[in-house]
Amino acid sequence: MATDTTTVAPPGRTVRAGRRPALRRDGRYAGVFLAPSLGGLALFTLFPTAMALAISLFDWPVFGERKFLGIENYSHLLHDPVFRRVVLNTALFVVLYVPLNVVVSLGLAVWLGPKIKGRQAFRVLFFIPVMTPMVANVMVWRLLFQPGGLLDAGLQSWFGVDAPNFLGSSDWAMPAIVAMSIWQGFGYNFLVFSAALDQVPQSQLESAQIDGAGVFQRFRYVTWPMITPSIFFATTMTLITSFQVFAQPFILTQGGPGVSTQTLVMFVYNQGWQFLSMGLASAAGWILFVIIMGITAIQFIGQKRWVTYDV
Where are the domains of the chain? Predict the structure, then answer.
């Protein structure tokens, strides 16, 4: 007697009963291979994130009694003039750093086109600061910026003027940190843009040139639409990392003068490890998380208007 080997399936599809055990077996194998990664994600990311949210609702000293406060930590931070200044410092760094990083990276990538000799050597040269440890880079720039340092000596010998006190002035400290950060980080976006420009068909550029399009017109109407996905990616990643800036101001200025260069991550560090107030540190960390998520969401919503994926 014949046995029906098919089971109920959506219209247009036939699933053989013999396939079900194989699918279940494949699912088990996939679960075994994914288990270490999922376990690590749960243990080192999801659990600490949940604990940080819970701690932010408490007065949580490292030593001593812990007291539930609800949203009082958040209310305290939002009314704290120091925290508001720290948020403004971080916003200022982001506003200065992100556009300059993208413009410098894209400009150098366009300049180092396929016809430039020694292009590969320049790529390696520009990427070296990214691979160099951040602390080493910051220490070198500290020697450059400090009074009597290389920059001060160069201005005195060449122009007979003294350099400003970059790291000791509230007017110059943040621009100095931005300049150092651009030098440190532009190489990554440079490679992203350089790879995107390599994918622009030369035939389309040549056709536009034959039709009378100039250099800027070819870039605006041919090159730009094709590299907008890379620009969106680079801008988003640079924006996220810029909100998390820490090492540069921590080593260059220690957040000074006063709190003029203290950033959100520095504030979290100081509250947690200097003042041992884990509740306030966690609350500040969650505020930073919400800011980053909100701005990233706005970017993803807005990218539909200017990013072209189907050129």
Answer: 14-44, 72-306
The architecture (CATH level 2) of 72-306 comes to: Orthogonal Bundle (1.10)
Q: Which residue has the tokens 């100095």?
A: 176
The values of phi and psi at residue 87, to 5°, are -60, -40
Distance from the Cα of residue 176 to its chain's centroid? 19
221 contacts 296 by C-beta, under 8 angstroms: no
What length is written for the chain?
311
**Peptide bond just before 257 cis, omega within 30 deg:** yes
CA distance 95 to 98: 6
Instruction: Give the single-character DSSP code of 277.
Output: B
- Residue 16: helix, strand or coil by DSSP? strand
What are the tens digits of pLDDT across the range 154-213? 888 888 788 888 888 888 999 999 999 999 999 999 999 999 998 888 888 888 888 888
* pLDDT per position as a tens digit, 249-259: 999 999 989 89
